[in-house]
Amino acid sequence: MKISHYFWHILIIVFIIIAIYPILFAVSNSFKHLNDAFTSTINLIPNPFTFENYQRLHETIPLLKITLNTFVIASIITAFKIVTSFLAAYALTYFNFRFKKTTYFLLISTIFIPFTVTMIPNYLIISHFNLIDSVWGVILPQLADAIGIFMLTQAMRNIPKPLIEAAQIDNISTFNIMKDHVLPIVRPALTSTAIWFFILAWNDYVWPLLMLRSRDSYTLPLALQLFVSSEGGTNFTVAMALSVITMAIPLILYLIFQRYIINTFSSSGIK
Amino acid sequence: MKKEYSLFLMSLIVILLAACGNGESDEVSAESEEKTKIEYWHVNAETQGGNTVDQLVEEFNAQSDTVEVVARYNPDMYAGLMSNMQAEVASGNSPAVVQVGWAFLDYFSENFEYVEPQEVIENYHEEDVTFLEDNFLPNILELGQNAEGTQVGIPYSLSNPILYINKDMLQEAGLDSEGPETWEEVREYSEAINKATGNYGVYIQEPADSWGQQAMVECNGASFIDDGKASFASDEGIEVFQYYQDLVNDELALHIGWDQGIQSFIDGNVGMLYTTIAQRNNIESNASFDVTTLQSPTWEGKEKRVPAGGAMLSITAQDEEEQAAAWEFMKYLYSVESIAEWTKGTGYVPPREGVSDSEEGLKSFLEENELMIPAIEQMDSMVPWASFPGDSGIEAEQKLLDMRDIILGGDVDVEETVSNTEEEINDLLE
Predict the structure, then answer these.
(1) Which residues in A lie closer than 8 A to residue B282 (C-beta atoms)?
(2) B181 and B225 belong to one structural domain
(3) What GO terms fall under cellular component here (chain A) (predicted)?
């Protein structure tokens, strides 16, 4: 009994270290001089401790603007994806219409089309609208996502039909059923999907790379590339400082909304 | 919980408003001017002169009444720029001025629409008709010509390989601090360094291209590519690879990746480093010993021939107004003052004449940065970077890298390996 108890704890600790080490590594190197980073790779404590990497970032790129761009893009994409997914999932679960199954099947099958296939057509359309190098060019093709529809449909199917039917008999409007009955139950699924969408959009690289031109419209993952070069050498410590900023913001957001997020997960189930 | 919901909604609204605000300000600035707007595509990361690009573009825009340039950075070097170009061209647009890496010269000229700079000058800027011949060495201009002799672009970022020396270590080994002039001497020096300090004598750069090896072969009077065919398996070529393998086998040369190789030199574990002048700033500011540079070694009694690294600027603007604007911008970039800034920011050598010896150019800069001088002095020995033509070019290049790894990996027969690789590449190219 006891031994297996310890065994699991040790195993968990090992996994925690494996998961957390790269993050500590990035944080520690972001406070090192470049020389120090190369000579004492294993040592996690910077000696001497320096802010020069962050200062360099601040001096060389419009950091605030870039962070704001990333935030705006990720937030709008997440908001739209969640709203469209929720409405579509509701319709596909509770409404009866012709070709419902076919529609659902077609929507879900778009999940299996790789991004590389739609990349060029999307580029042509956006270019036609003259939205290249704007935040909207990045956002527009990403306003809906079949994965969200799939996740929320699954969640809604778990709600007993009689609950909804009872509400319909009581003459409650569809909007109110959605708002008061379905939304609270699927909120955990909604939240986790939203977090996932946000992180995905936050870290997105290829599509923003194609869209965005000037530094003022860059996102954080694009800016990271500015410090990596095969011919001029890579400034690892500055790149680490930018990585730390890139991962810190979703982390801070998570900490702020943590209580709320955990609440929704624990309050699932039908009351 | 309600409260947090409304907080979330509020922040969303704020974001939306902020985003709309952005759009509006863009429109206003577009209306207030009637300059020709062109795009300049480059690959210069922050560590490679990115700030200098922005600074030059800003200065140009401030002084020009007719042209507005937007600079676009392309990650992943020249290959990355080429793939972005493909998307752009597919959508019916194109930037006005692009950087084309030497290794992509043939690929670019076969696949994209461009105009020869001289043609643009003659059509729209009569006054500059002799600009190119007045300001560039003929062998430098030739770097920008494709197999048919068309001037695809004008050399802009220019690098060549030099030998960096750890003076302290040479002294410790009792060696003449003048350093080696030939590859034969490089071996002698390496033996002495190894004996006296136990360190490696030399590291010859091993990135994902064969630039450094090409330099060694060309300096031995052989060529890498002759008339579109691989030709490195000549007696002279085999001699070079045999020499290289012996150096590594005798533990006189370090065999490791490029980043680590440079770092080993900086850490004082290797006495000499053969790599590009573009690394000067990195090495000079990080090494804690007395470092100096020498021109590329050649072989005893042979002429020096070093391949050019870097890129040229090509004009890809399609309509007349943009082409004229492209040259106005390029002329600004090639001015003595701009090239001087460019050299300081990137560590490349100036591609044109009249920069290193003039006051408004680099005269005082070079007095303080003597390490650059050997690279500038060997400019008349520069030859084009060998790039294999056609669709199989990239595969052929990979075979060369594999060959390097096999030879340096240990006891294979050099002559057999080199001849086989040459044969395989020529089969590919057919």
Answers:
(1) 232-233
(2) yes
(3) plasma membrane
